[in-house]
TrEMBL record:
<dbReference type="InterPro" id="IPR009003">
    <property type="entry name" value="Peptidase_S1_PA"/>
</dbReference>
<protein>
    <recommendedName>
        <fullName>Serine protease</fullName>
    </recommendedName>
</protein>
<feature type="signal peptide">
    <location>
        <begin position="1"/>
        <end position="30"/>
    </location>
</feature>
<keyword id="KW-0732">Signal</keyword>
<dbReference type="InterPro" id="IPR043504">
    <property type="entry name" value="Peptidase_S1_PA_chymotrypsin"/>
</dbReference>
């Protein structure tokens, strides 16, 4: 029987502090590195590395965190490299339901690396709820920045997007964002991949940041 969503997230939230306390010490020079939405990252395991895109970064207290897709950690690895900046980190919590239409996100501890709130040269105003009246874009390391239209909810916290080219492995975890009239970008989700219906229709899909991650009650998540 599948555990209830609330029970799973409650257990993960309770485990977050002991897990992060066991992470390897961050090198003293780590503060010189930066991490930002759209960076190319790799999660390393004994069997190899999985390349993905970093979707969102923020700092809570003295620690910087990043968010990507949970399925990027399926290889069982915990060490993370940011190939754009040289920053290193470790997976703190990964939520990766075997059913692709359920929860799929991961939190990475980047230690004292600095979070940079820009994407495509635009300042990032923070996280927000997807607005169906505004163009929605993703910025993955493979297909770069492409835009389309929000097609409503797929299931749970996942949304459908149409009008975008098909994503390529490596785009997983990419920031899904919407432009604002003041020239800033609001990150509304983490890219997960494609959804194919029985009739052959293809849409893109992403998970909402605000809905998925606030369930973990991570202190300072939206700071």
């Amino acid at each position: 029987m599948r555990p209830t969503r609330a029970a799973t997230l409650t257990a993960l939230a309770g485990a977050l502090i002991p897990i992060t306390s066991l992470l390897a010490p961050v090198p003293s020079h780590a503060g010189a590195y930066t991490v930002a939405a759209g960076d190319e990252i790799a999660v390393h395991s004994n069997t190899g590395s999985t390349t993905c895109t970093l979707g969102y970064t923020y700092t809570a207290g003295a620690t910087t965190y990043g968010v990507t897709a949970g399925h990027c950690t399926r290889g069982g690895g915990s060490a993370v490299s940011d190939y754009d900046s040289g920053a290193t980190g470790a997976v703190a919590v990964a939520v990766n339901d075997p059913d692709p239409l359920f929860d799929d996100f991961a939190l990475i501890n980047f230690g004292t690396s600095r979070s940079v709130s820009t994407i495509n040269g635009m300042p990032v105003s923070g996280m927000g709820v997807p607005d169906p009246a505004i163009t929605v874009c993703r910025s993955g390391i493979r297909t770069k920045t492409v835009c389309g239209q929000l097609d409503g909810r797929l299931l749970g916290y996942q949304y459908n997007v149409s009008g975008m080219p098909e994503s390529i492995p490596g785009d997983s975890g990419a920031p899904v964002w919407q432009p604002a009239s003041d020239g800033t970008a609001t990150i509304v989700g983490i890219w997960l991949g494609e959804h194919h219906t029985h009739s052959g229709t293809r849409t893109g899909r992403f998970t909402s940041l605000t809905e998925s991650l606030t369930d973990l009650v991570v202190a300072g998540l939206q700071s």
